């Protein structure tokens, strides 16, 4: 049976809550086995707040307790101890996957300010997993209701994202994203590269990046795919105000989003709770909820476990080839 390491995320956020609720819902333990990585005391305390009785007795066998030195939790607050604990859970998940104990990872949300307060030398999940596994520039893909979105840039300001969109980078991402889809088991497909400017720039009226950068990159990448990955293709740029809708309807197998919010807004508007992030390029598959720590509702029995459940489901579903 496939084992999925499930990290608890920042203990001050909703991570503990969505995990205990997921375990106590209609989770299908016959399809895969979750290995919850976190502090057992935190999970039991949150389970009590959520009116889940006998949590330890029911689900203790699924919990891998990690000693983080976490003596107390301040729900809803940025804390160095929360950031440090988050990092320790992630480190343990990498260790379990390297040992072959777990075959994939699903992560609950962490807080970037807490990581910084703990002096963790990474800005977020993707960067931590890349650093701990020696992975160079892993790919991020969103999936929700059949729509798949890759990202050329992630945690950059909009102005810096635009500067980072070069022909070389686009060609590299188009090819690597197509290879990632093949590793997930897809045999063919056409990627659509989103445009950057309104109406694709209207031939330079609103910007010239489409003609100067994106179109030449797409043409060159198409040649590479034809030789290296028969069955996979690429087109674009396709105007960003329609490309995600068209991909959701099945015209394209995926979309290459040029910057963070371009793809995030599309996916989360389609289905916020079931938008799941998948990290490609690591030695193992990693999925994640795509919402934050929600400090405003943490430890109040208000958080929904749907995204956590979906992240674990996708980690079970996909087999890297």
Could you describe the 3D structure shown?
This protein is an alpha/beta fold and 321 residues long. The protein has two domains: 179 residues, Isopropylmalate Dehydrogenase (3-Layer(aba) Sandwich), CATH 3.40.718.10; 135 residues, Isopropylmalate Dehydrogenase. The chain contains twelve helices and eleven strands. It has an eleven-stranded mixed β-sheet, with helices on both faces. α4 crosses α6. The chain is elongated.
* Category by helix and strand content: alpha/beta
CATH fold descriptor of the largest domain = Isopropylmalate Dehydrogenase
Q: How do the helices and strands follow one another from N- to C-terminus?
A: EHEHHEHEHHEEHHEHEHEHEEH
The CATH C-level class name of the largest domain: Alpha Beta
| Whole-number mean pLDDT | 92
Q: Over the alpha carbons, how many angstroms does the gyration radius reach?
A: 20 Å
Shape: elongated
Number of domains: 2
Helix content: 40-55%
What fraction of residues sit in β-strands?
A: 15-25%
Q: Which stretches are poorly predicted, pLDDT < 50 over at least 5 residues?
A: none
User: Biggest β-sheet, characterized?
Assistant: 11 strands, mixed
State the distance separating the first and last CA atoms. 17 Å
Find the count of extended strands (DSSP E, 2+ residues): 11
Q: Could you give me the name of the CATH homologous superfamily of the largest domain?
A: Isopropylmalate Dehydrogenase
Please report the number of helical segments: 12
